[in-house]
Design goal:
Chain lengths: 462, 456
């Protein structure tokens, strides 16, 4: 067993516990801690986490309360497609100035809301707090409440001050905002003639599910929607890809929640189980094995022979369509070594599986915000000698990819040029992806993408 | 979003922004610091900001952008970030080993009031290594302000007048332009035979060649010794008053280097002025090579002038770039009907209005500290034939079906632009090609079969 050399001074002392080699060390990799000051961390902040989860809600006004930067950098960068409103593609900011920082930004926030309501007549506004708002202590809750009453619309504060944690805390803040949104209106608002009515009973629709943790990047949610429709299961609402105010309100009616992105949505699912009595299951539509298994899992849940039969038919047909294409790519990719560095643990896991399906060896795998259980699974899936690491910096990435002879890196925006400079192929598996990677079609797209970057003639000139 | 913008204009009293035409200070500071050789920019704040700034620069330049962060957590925001910065300084020099670290603040560290110079003084900086800083609160100014502050910070910390007599050399402060532009500015000065120091200089850093290796600190960037030596130069030329003049004045105060603030040399007139300033101050004839390029430019301007003359154009972007562009567009006979920048500063409006008045153009909209919502409303009320601006203009261009030329920062949906200059005569030629192609492609697209022509 080759022992991995952690050459000093390249790997900083405090970082050693966050890196391990499968087979070489007993100890599990450390994760879920704050980054070391002075490192070139690839991590993002609470606001970022909240924004990515909520932004795909198409007809909402996403108002960023803070200085201009936070709004500028998150302006329409997600690639979540819409079948309805394009409203979420705008960028709204209170553009806080020195004066607001000194005297507080509540007044300005209230006026900005006034003007936005007048202009757009929205049903729903999210107000995101940024670092500075957390420090100066603006009472977002109060301003939102007052303005919401004034206009009789929903204005939901998102507590996403950047420094109170990392991206995961932002997911939670977003889920809290979503829970507020789907909560049934207080009963007095439900009566039209002043009489007090009973709290409205949520009517469950059978064979109807909510799809949690798909942001409809490159139309991925639509693919899954069609699969499920074919087997007789209706998607009620997607959290949050291509969703809107009206559809989200119907969320409590579903009879099952399925979760694609565990990192962002498990918390919401648990809460919905508690409050609305909706059970949930984890699924994944990334890669063939996961897709097959997930469709079956959903079919089994409903315990309906017809659904199960249709599911098998769908799987058989789809597999047949992609079989020969995949075989071709597999052949071309023989002997390829891949490195993975992505945001969440769930994604890393599904990538490990997908590479296995393609016969590609994974030599390094890491995440920005993976959790302990996820690293456990990663470690089980990884082959001997694979480097596993948490919250890596570019120097580490470079070192391990070179040592391990990776041909390909899967990562996000910031990793792309790094890979290219090293002469490595690259795949974007982040919010920037342009081809759907979900479902059977997605598996082919993935193979094709790996092929087109790994086998590009450009590497001959390096 | 296309129909969400209304034609009816009401004064917006809130000060809120819809679709910004600017971003925050730290990213400008980060970009400036990348133009110093073997420098690691350091963001003093929480890691989110740093990650966003790196991501945005990466998208524009498509090259690795390195910067470290103090990784603030809740503790730091209560007790101050001093400890974080000290640890960061120690770690950065042990792990990444840059020659110099350029610290900039974020709105968070500014708000809690960290005293950066004092913290730096108390930190362990290895022998021969340097730490400089700039204060860049994001709730003031824009990314251009941040850029300006970091360049000023670099000369304030480092420049020294070590000689009795000033050297026959010029400091050129190029402003927030692409590495391709900085290369072109250096080339012009070299062809003129004037010894020069360009600060900052991101060429060779953010347009570095592919070598099959990843280099944390690519070969490019202004060397520290050169920054020190800017104090000995005979004069400083600041290109663009918004991004560059502060550093030039700081050098004047500190080292008695004569400042000259010129426009960013976009188009024929501003390039002439730049070369004439070099020529008259250093007693050099304008080089034959450059004269020839100027001749070529005039030649193609004559070849194509009838395509542009009288065409209405809407321009937005960073102030120095927009000022330079507006002057060039006027020289082409075009009519800038809407001119906007997101960066605050009344001298933008004054300068543009003076140029328009001199050209006899009335009724144009001009605004500093504006946003793209306003810009879109203007176009709805008074249509334009062409739009010039950064990537974000594409929404408006699509909604209003206007040919669109991408110039400025950021450009996230096209590549190669950062390698190609828009400054100098060469840059003017390129702009001319882009503008005429956009207009003529549009004409081809729109013309009826019987009007479709081979020669235009
Ligand atoms: S928190 Fe401040 S410094 Fe950070 S991105 Fe937002 S505006 Fe910029
Ligand atoms: S890691 Fe998962 S939850 Fe997080 S943004 Fe990515 S896909 Fe979403």
């Amino acid at each position: 067993m080759e022992q991995l050399a952690l050459k000093d001074p390249k790997v900083i002392e405090e970082r050693k516990e966050f890196i391990s080699t499968k087979g070489a060390q007993k100890q599990q990799v450390k994760c879920d801690e704050d980054s070391v000051a002075g490192s070139i961390s690839q991590r993002a902040c609470v606001f970022c986490g909240a924004r990515v989860v909520l932004n795909p809600i198409t007809d909402a006004i996403h108002l960023v309360h803070g200085p201009i930067g936070c709004a500028s950098y998150t302006w329409d960068i997600r690639g979540s497609l819409t079948s309805g409103s394009n409203h979420y593609r705008n960028s709204f900011s209170t553009d806080m100035k020195e004066k607001d920082v000194i005297f507080g930004g509540e007044k300005k926030l209230a006026i900005v809301i006034d003007e936005l309501v007048e202009k757009y007549k929205p049903k729903l506004i999210f107000v995101y707090s940024t670092c500075i708002v957390g420090v100066i202590g603006d009472d977002l809750e109060a301003v939102c409440k007052k303005q919401a009453q004034k206009y009789n619309i929903e204005i939901i504060p998102v507590q996403s001050s950047g420094f109170i944690g990392n991206k995961s805390a932002g997911y939670r803040a977003a889920c809290d905002a979503l829970l507020r949104l789907i909560a049934p209106a207080p009963q007095e608002q439900l009566t039209n003639n002043g009489e007090t009515s009973q709290p409205k009973e949520v009517k469950k629709k059978s064979k109807t599910i909510n799809y949690l943790g798909d942001f409809n990047l490159a139309a991925e949610a639509w693919i899954i929607k069609n699969y499920l429709k074919e087997i007789g299961v209706e998607i009620n609402v997607t959290f949050t890809g291509d969703s809107d105010y009206v559809s989200l309100k119907k969320a409590p009616e579903a009879s099952l929640n399925i979760i694609q992105c565990a990192g962002s949505m498990t918390y919401l699912a648990k809460k919905m189980e508690e409050i609305y009595d909706i059970p949930f299951i984890h699924i994944s539509f990334l890669g063939i094995e996961d897709t097959k298994e997930s469709i079956r899992k959903i079919a089994r849940f409903f315990n309906d022979p017809e659904i199960e039969q249709k599911a098998e038919q769908l799987i058989a047909r789809e597999l047949k369509t992609i079989e020969s294409q995949l075989d071709w790519y597999k052949q071309k990719l023989q002997g390829t070594k891949a490195a993975i560095y992505v945001g969440g643990g769930f994604k890393a896991i599904s990538l490990l599986k997908q590479f296995k399906e393609l016969g590609v060896e994974v030599v390094m795998v890491g995440t920005q915000t993976g959790r302990k259980e996820e690293y456990q699974t990663i470690s089980e899936l990884a082959t001997e000698g694979t480097v596993i690491l948490d919250d890596a910096n570019p120097t580490e990435l470079e070192q391990f990819m070179t040592e391990k002879g990776a041909d390909l890196l899967v990562g996000g925006v910031k990793e792309r040029p790094l890979a290219y400079k090293l002469g490595l192929a690259f795949i974007d598996h982040n919010h920037d992806r342009k081809h759907p990677l979900s479902g059977f079609v997605g598996a082919v797209n993935f193979a094709k993408e790996v092929y087109s970057t790994v086998c590009s003639p450009v590497w001959k000139y390096v | 979003m296309l129909d969400a913008t209304t034609k009816e204009m009401k004064p917006r009293l809130s000060g809120g922004v819809i679709n910004p035409a600017k971003t925050c200070q730290p990213i400008g500071a980060m970009y400036a610091a990348l133009g110093i050789h073997k420098c690691l920019p350091h963001s003093h704040g929480s890691q989110g900001c740093c990650s966003y700034h790196r991501m945005h620069l990466t998208r524009h330049f498509r090259d690795p952008v390195m910067a470290s962060t103090s990784s603030f957590t809740e503790g730091a925001s209560v007790f101050g970030g001093g400890a974080n910065l000290k640890t960061a300084i120690k770690n950065v020099f042990t792990i990444y080993n840059p020659d110099i670290m350029a610290v900039h603040t974020t709105c968070l560290s500014e708000t809690i009031g960290d005293d950066i110079p004092t913290i730096i003084k108390q930190s362990e900086v290895p022998d021969g290594k340097l730490v400089i800083h700039a204060s860049t609160p994001s709730y003031v100014g824009s990314h251009i302000t941040g850029f300006s502050n970091m360049v000023k910070g670099a000369v304030t910390y480092l420049a020294e007048a070590t000689m009795e007599e000033k050297k026959e050399q010029v400091n050129i402060i190029p402003g927030f332009v692409n590495p391709g532009d900085m290369r072109e500015i250096k080339r012009m000065a070299k062809v003129m035979g004037v010894k020069n120091i360009v600060l900052p200089d991101t060429s060779g850093v953010l347009d570095s060649p592919m070598t099959g290796e990843f280099d944390m600190f690519p070969k490019g960037g202004t060397k520290i010794a050169e920054i020190v030596d800017t104090g000995n130069s005979k004069m400083s030329i600041a290109l663009g008053s918004f991004a560059s003049s502060d550093a030039a004045y700081a050098l004047e105060r500190k080292c008695k280097v004569k400042p000259a603030v010129l426009k960013t040399p976009i188009g024929i007139k501003a390039t002439d002025e730049f070369l004439m300033t070099l020529s008259s101050n250093f007693g050099k004839e304008v080089a034959k090579e450059l004269e020839e390029e100027r001749g070529q430019l005039v030649d193609i301007m004559t070849d194509t002038h009838f395509h542009f003359h009288g065409k209405k154009v809407a321009v937005f972007g960073d102030p120095d770039i927009v000022i330079g562009l507006t002057e060039y567009l006027l020289s082409l006979g075009m009519i800038p009907v809407h001119v906007l920048t997101g960066t605050p500063g009344s001298k933008f409006e004054t300068e543009i209005k003076e140029m328009l008045a001199r050209a006899g153009i009335e009724g144009s909209n001009v605004k500093a500290a504006g946003d793209l919502y306003t810009f879109h409303q203007w176009i709805k009320n008074q249509p334009a034939d062409l739009m010039i601006g950064n990537t974000y203009g594409k929404y408006i261009a699509r909604a209003e079906d206007i040919p669109f030329v991408r110039v400025g920062f950021p450009i996230l949906d096209r590549s190669v632009h950062s390698y190609m200059p828009i400054v100098g005569y060469k840059g003017a030629m390129r702009l001319l090609e882009m503008i005429s192609n956009a207009l003529l492609d549009r004409k081809d697209r729109d013309s009826a079969d019987e009007d479709f022509e081979l020669v235009m």
